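Hi V.,

You were right to ask for the full record rather than a summary. Here it is.
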Amino acid sequence: MLIRIFTLLLAIISFIPSNAQVAGGDFQKLFDWYAMEDYDRCAYKAESYTKKDKYRRSPEPHLYMALCMYQAHINPDAFDEEFKDPLKDALKYAYKFRKKDKTGELYQMNKRQIDQIREEALDKALFYFNDEDYYKASSEFNRILKVMPGDVNVAFITGVAMINARNVTEGERNISEALDSLRIQEKAGTFEKDDVTHNVLIKSFISYTKYLADDGQKDRALEIITLGRQLVPDNTGLKAQYKKLYAKAPEDEEEE
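Predicted structure:
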């Protein structure tokens, strides 16, 4: 009889979606409701925890709120309440979670969950960027950057969006810091591809060097696209931009 019960429990657990798992938690009710996809109840209870003095400094309720708001974004039918911008709320709570997770241990255990929020938010920001709505794009990238303040790739694209939105001073500051970090990584051989933001990095190099070339800063554009090629030598987009910039250089020198 005990064997049958144990087998049944294993079968139930195997049907719980992998994206419904939260690791390393102490709030059993939140774990149970989220695992069973009762996101509405989980969000309601998690929010109540964030407002109580006893729990408001704990990172875990904020993690559950971030994940539930992400679910509200991709699966609004799972909630009785309609949220105006659940993805924005997911980023807000993810930011609070990262701040309160002092050791970073809980984040490392649930990094894939946070990455899903980042991926969705990046898609939204890139939509605005590709539509040349750079003000909205920079605002969206900034929200992501708050969750991952050390993300060089996002800092780079945020800066590019800012300068295109005519916020040149702050945009150049973001770009300069990102490029300094990338140069250090290239020199030390420590650069690693981030699967979530790699395409953002490529777009940053191409968009920024195009901006520089159009602005008459050809030497700087060539220097930066060369760095991009050194970091990611096999990317076809960077190769094409590299060739385009170098093809223009000899003609420009002759005219001068």
